[in-house]
Amino acid sequence: MFILRRLMQKLIKINNSLLFTTTIILVALTSYLIVVVEPETFPSMWDGFWWVMTTVTTVGYGDYSPVSVGGRMVALFLYIFGIGVVGVIIGKVVDGLAAFRRKKEAGDIVFKEKQHYIIIGWSKKASFAIKEMLDTSKDIEIVIIDDLENAPILEDNIHYIKGNASDTATLKKANVQEAHSVLVFADDMIEDDQLTDGKTLLIASAIESIAPDVHTIVEVMEEEHIKNFEYMQVDEFIVSTETVSSLFVRSAFRKGLSSVYGQLLRRTKGDDLFYVAKSDRWNTYRDAFEELLSYGATLIADGANLGINRILDETIPSNAQLYVICDKDAIKTIYTKLNS
Prior knowledge:
By secondary structure, this protein is of the alpha/beta class. The protein is built from eleven helices and nine strands. It is found in: Cell membrane.
């Protein structure tokens, strides 16, 4: 027993690649030996391999068992060494999976995939943003960057990296250079708006220094601070406090207006805002407007230009960013028709 225990301790400490190689050789060798020693019971290599694998991984199925002295000697060798080696491998695999799970929960990972979405700064707003993103597309990968001890949320397609988002080393762990978009949320824990936007400025500066081409959306607390970001290539700004205040005021003067905004911003029910790529058969905005209207959608904007109704007879540029308001059934019909 002492010898077996020492042997197991040696196996546990052995290099993984050497252990796997040894296991493959052991399985192949015993599969071959049992066929050579007892061909009546094991007529083919497949039968030998089947018996070896069921023996070392389970108690065996009983469909094959050696009856000769030579076959039983091979079986004894397999019982002593094979089961122990395979047991160590299974243990190492389980330990490896557990260690990987712990590293994911602690945010100690390096993300290597591409076209993912990075969310910087965990808050209720970030949580809601993730829900909206997954409602829009289930097939996206999301990486959260924050300094929390453990991942705030962890799913197969949601990953967490712990660290300072203004540190380029942390951003590189999230593979920011090959991300689809980066969403930088303002830190709710800081009470001073200037300090909040100052922290956001540092993060945005770090992002742009190593990934100037990535699409970056930044939340700022005060609109007057946007000018401080001008030297960077930040794509979009969300002024959270002024946006909410403006919505309050507009709703106060016109009842029910908040429901209109809410329906366009949330993908719950009713009509939503959708992007539609320019079709080759559309020459003018009127062509696009009329065809989209026939499918139940209203063309309202080209990028930031909301005055489509005033330029209906103008030619649509090749880089147009067309947006429509419609329900989910209508947008499915549009995508089907335009791609046919």
